[in-house]
Amino acid sequence: MTPPKAATAETLDGGAPVGGTEELISGSEAVAHAVRLADVDVLTAYPIRPYDTVMQYVSKLIADGEFDCEFIVAESEHSQFEIVKHASTVGARVFVGSSGVGWLYAFEALAVTAGLRVPMVAMVGNRALDDPGAFGVEHNDALAVRDLGWMLCWVATAQEALDTALIAYRVAEDPRVSLPCALSCDGAFLTHSQSIVNVPDQATVDSFLPPYDRKEKLLHPDNPITIAPQANEDWVMEIRKQSDAGMRRARDVITEAYDDFGAKFGREDEPFIERYMMEDAEIALVGMGTLAMPVKVAVRKMREQGQKVGFVRVRWFRPFPVEELQDALGGVAAVGVIDRDYGLGSAFYGGVLAGDLRTALYPLEDRPKVVSFIAGLGGREINTDNVITIAGMVSDAAEGGTTDDQDTYWIGVRE
Amino acid sequence: MSETTVEGFGEFVETQVLDAWKGPKKVPHEEFFTSGHRTCQGCESAQLMKLMAKAAGPRTIILGATGCMYVANTTYYSTPWAVPWMHTQLGSAGSAATGTAAGLKALMRKGKMKDEPINVISFCGDGGGADMGLSAISAALQHTEYNHLILMYDNESYANTDIQVSGSSPYGAHTTFSAPGKVQRIMNRRWKKNTAAMLAAGHPDCKYVATVCTSNPVDAMNHVRKALSIGGPTFIHSLDPCPKGWDYDPRYSHELGELAIETGIWPLYEVVEGELKMHGKSRRILRGQLKRKPVEEYLMRQGRFAHFVQEDIDYFQGKIDQMWEEWLIPGVIPFSAGEES
Ligand SMILES: Cc1ncc(C[n+]2csc(CCOP(=O)(O)OP(=O)(O)O)c2C)c(N)n1
Ligand code: SF4
Ligand SMILES: [Mg+2]
Question: How far is A251 from A147, CA to CA, in rounded Å?
Answer without folding.
Answer: 16
